[in-house]
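Lab notebook: predicted structure, single chain.

Context: the supervisor wants predicted structures on file for every construct in the current expression panel, including those that have not yet been purified. This is the next one on the list. No modifications to the sequence; it matches the entry in the shared construct table.
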Amino acid sequence: MSKVILPNAGEKVIVSVDNTRGAMRTGPLAHLIPEVIDIVGVMNSGVRTDEDTFSLIVAGSPVPVRIIHLRNVIAINGKRIKAELKNVAPKSFTIKGSKGAKYTVLFDGKTWTCDCMAGKFGRGCKHVAEAQSR
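Prediction complete. Output recorded below exactly as produced.
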């Protein structure tokens, strides 16, 4: 990965994030979801899952600490960035539902999807949660 220089911990930032592949971008109301969202927060040094992520503390949010994947970042404080990231091979999981039906959960390196009814409407489901725990 080519090194993206991030602001220091404690600095207030505005992170512009590509929202075009999120779970909410499907279904009849997809046109209402913005393609780019700005997240205002403070750089956090305490939470980092790998070299391709960073975290923000977002005051007043129901999710006070956000893990941001660099492949989703368009700009930080208005400065465009380009992150060259490791390629992640797509993964497929077959998950058995509570009534015996089998569902396919896909992870493309960025987005988790499921072919269950909740997944078809862009909502989270327990099948994705189970696949993520594997």
